[in-house]
Design goal:
There is one protein chain. The chain is globular and about 80 Å long. It has helices spanning 11-21, 24-46, 52-73, 87-90, 105-113, 116-124, 129-136, 143-157, 164-174, 176-184, 189-207, 216-221, 226-231, 235-242, 249-262, 279-291, 309-316, 319-336, 360-369, 380-389, 391-394, 407-425, 431-444, 452-461, 472-483; strands spanning 232-234, 269-272, 303-308, 339-344, 373-378, 398-401, 428-429, 469-470. The protein is an alpha/beta fold. The strands form two sheets. It has a six-stranded mixed sheet with strand order 1-3-4-5-2-6, sandwiched between helices. The chain has a two-stranded parallel sheet with strand order 7-8.
Length: 495
């Protein structure tokens, strides 16, 4: 059994103390001082006034000091939890200088709760200070028990580094009064572990630099595609303007398969999955991977354009016009030499009967010659019908079957997407809202798959927030308003 130790004289503790003495306001002031000194020094030097070079030197030295503070001092490295028993090396940077082995249970709980991820996990599970303080007020904490529980949670969540959210969860796991609070809310330690991973992904997301996708030379290298810009949507541009977005590991294997198949013998793929399952999300992931220069074979430097069948058919008006437009789009993509065409609702392009649009004979030569890289998106039923009526066409497409994600993966997707919904709506989405959206989506939205159907309900619930929080009650209110039914109470345990 591990025996954790703490040495208050460790260099990391001293570094944390010094780092925390530089408040955000002080850092902003230093940033302003060095920029102002450099600019003023340059102006004075150009005017020939004495002392300009001295002021410029002072500004540059201050700038170097601020850079060291930001990237050297304030970025306090730590050791993975599995590699050390020295708390000075493994505690989160926010609390390492405030920790002492003689802290009471209440003091240690508040130390972790006053950090961003400590507040995050308490808010997301709807715990307030008034809820928790009575439970930890007279807590005779045995520190060794807490750190052992934290280590078990780290192993359970498969996270290498200790976080404040882990410490909060460990408090709930060993403190009887806090454990009772969990039971009253019908929550479990597994639920808190989901929140720990949620906070960890948010931490990675917020600290990640905006990816560099290249500059004007890359745009000049791309072909001129006015028709594609008119009738299609560039997913590559969407990704580039978004800058960065969540990408769950569970999607990575499907993305790897998609890249492999697009580089394979057929060179074109059909994504088979129910509406809402994430076909567009997979294409966005492909666009992001290509833009970042991640190994993608012959797809390197390609852009992803998605064509909406409904829009093209509505714009064209006649079958002949549709065929002409699609041929022109395909030729333009071939001429550009760096386009992947994605056909959304592809089944609309392969209808049967008089007056129906059927582009099999239009697309067949492109697929046979492999001159064009195509990705079709269809439902399983439409794929079976397409195979029965267009065997020649479907034999040139490699099917990639997208299965509905399990509950844990769906909840993780909802959690990550919720963070992108919150800022525009100025709300905080709780864990109970995620679980309620998952449960009620299965009951009331049958025509779509997860995660899409749960995301629809979660988005609708933003309009029913109370005091800035979207809870299970807000989700139920959204469902009642949308479907005209009375929804019973939904808890995190109902899943």
């Amino acid at each position: 059994m591990k025996q954790f130790e703490f040495h208050a004289t460790a260099s990391r503790v001293a570094q944390a103390k010094l780092a925390h003495s530089f408040t955000p306001n002080l850092m902003s002031l230093l940033q302003f001082v060095w920029v102002a000194a450099v600019v003023t020094g340059l102006v004075i030097t150009m005017l020939g006034v004495r002392g300009g070079l001295v002021l410029l030197g002072v500004g540059l030295m201050t700038g170097c000091y601020v850079t060291w503070l930001r990237h050297g001092l304030l970025d306090i490295a730590r050791t993975p939890l599995a590699d050390s028993v020295e708390l000075a090396d493994i505690l989160p940077a926010e609390i390492v200088d405030g920790y002492r082995p003689n802290l009471t249970g209440q003091q240690l709980f508040l130390l972790a709760a006053n950090t961003w991820d400590g507040r995050f996990i308490l808010e997301r599970y709807e715990f307030s200070a008034n809820d928790c303080l009575p439970a930890v007020q007279d807590w005779q904490l045995i520190h060794q028990d807490l750190w052992l529980a934290t280590a078990e949670i780290a192993e359970k969540t498969q996270l290498a580094f200790m976080t404040n959210a882990m410490i909060i969860a460990a408090c709930f796991s060993i403190n009887p009064a806090l454990k009772d609070l969990l039971t009253q809310r019908k929550l479990t330690l597994d639920d808190l572990c989901a929140g720990i991973n949620w906070a960890a992904r948010l931490g990675v997301y917020t600290k990640a630099k905006r990816p560099s996708y290249g500059g004007i030379a890359r745009d000049w290298a791309a072909g001129f595609t006015p028709l594609l810009s008119q009738f299609g949507t560039s997913l590559s541009q969407q990704v580039e303007f978004a800058g960065k977005f969540f990408q769950l590991e569970e999607r990575t294997s499907q993305l790897d398969t998609l890249v492999t198949e697009l580089n394979g013998a057929n060179g074109s793929v059909v994504l088979v999955g129910e509406p809402g399952i994430g076909k567009t999300a997979l294409l966005l992931g492909l666009a992001d991977r290509i833009l970042q220069g991640v190994e993608s074979g012959r797809l390197a430097h390609h852009q992803i354009f998605t064509l909406n069948a409904s829009s093209i058919i509505a714009e064209a008006g006649t079958v002949g016009s549709v065929e002409q437009i699609v041929m022109a789009l395909c030729n333009e993509a071939i001429h550009a030499r760096n386009i992947v065409l994605a056909l959304d609702e592809a089944q609309l392009f392969f209808g049967q009967g008089t007056g129906a649009v059927n582009l099999s004979q239009v697309l067949l030569p492109y697929l046979q010659s492999r001159s064009l890289t195509l990705v079709l998106a269809v439902t399983p039923g439409d794929w079976q019908r397409l195979k029965a009526t267009n065997a020649g066409l479907t034999s040139l497409l490699t099917p990639l079957i997208l299965s509905e994600p399990d509950q844990a993966t769906t909840l993780a997707t909802l959690a990550d997407r919720s963070l992108l919904m919150e800022t525009p709506a100025n709300v905080t989405i709780t864990y109970s809202a995620l679980v309620a959206a998952y449960r009620l989506a299965e009951r009331y939205i049958q025509e779509e798959a997860y995660p899409g159907r749960a995301l629809k309900i979660l988005e609708a619930s933003l309009n029913h927030a109370q005091n800035g929080f979207v809870t299970a009650a807000a989700v139920e209110a959204a469902v009642e308003a949308q479907f005209g039914v009375k929804v019973g109470a939904t808890t995190a345990a109902e899943s």
